[in-house]
């Protein structure tokens, strides 16, 4: 009976440690993804201010904005894909989000304040979605939801512990 308590204790500690490490990794990926999105907002505002008041945006500024988007969006997509694999956030598809962020006309964004604001609103919605998905995944769950999500994952561990306990009982009966 003592061995069962030890196995259950170790299983519980393993679960807590694994969950803590996974949560920390998800937090790190989420924060770095958001950092890239915030950098995209900041740099696009800077490019807009440099071209404000011009009839046609400077071609170099348009190219620089496209380069900025093509540099930051794949980095966001890479981290967001890792985030999706680790956390399986509901309603979060990094490929679709990255496609939406790439499909912009940088010349029109640099020319019209409204288009730039719409682009920034779109990025803000993505950030809010990531934050709320993270909160719902880790902090907005009842005890029964947690138990039902953990149960299937722990099934293999309980089968292994039961098998080892039965093996221990057989060996104890044979030699003691």
Describe the structure.
The chain is mainly α. The protein has a domain at 29-140. Helix content is 87%, strand content 0%. The chain is built from six helices and no strands. It has helices spanning 2-51, 59-87, 94-102, 106-111, 113-138, 143-175. α1 (2-51) runs antiparallel to α6. The protein is rod-shaped.
Short description:
The chain is mainly α.
Keywords:
mainly alpha, about 85% helix
Percent of residues in helices: over 70%
Q: Helical segment tally?
A: 6
- Measured distance between first and last alpha carbons: 16 Å
Number of strands: 0
| Poorly predicted tracts of residues | none
Q: What characteristic shape results from the CA principal axes?
A: rod-shaped
Topology:
Blueprint: H1 2-51, H2 59-87, H3 94-102, H4 106-111, H5 113-138, H6 143-175
């Amino acid at each position: 009976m003592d061995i069962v308590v030890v196995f259950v204790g170790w299983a519980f500690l393993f679960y807590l440690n694994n969950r803590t490490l996974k949560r920390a990794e998800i937090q790190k990926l989420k924060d770095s993804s958001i950092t890239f999105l915030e950098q995209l907002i900041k740099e696009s505002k800077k490019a807009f201010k440099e071209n404000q008041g011009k009839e046609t945006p400077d071609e170099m500024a348009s190219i620089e904005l496209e380069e900025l988007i093509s540099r930051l969006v794949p980095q966001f997509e890479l981290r967001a894909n890792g985030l999706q694999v680790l956390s399986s956030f509901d309603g979060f598809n990094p490929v679709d989000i990255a496609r939406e962020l790439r499909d912009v006309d940088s010349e029109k964004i640099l020319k019209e304040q409204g288009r730039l604001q719409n682009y920034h609103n779109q990025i803000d919605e993505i950030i809010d979605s990531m934050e709320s998905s993270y909160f719902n995944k880790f902090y907005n769950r009842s005890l029964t939801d947690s138990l039902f999500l953990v149960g299937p994952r722990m099934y293999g561990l309980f089968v292994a512990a039961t098998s080892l306990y039965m093996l221990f009982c057989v060996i104890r009966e044979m030699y003691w």
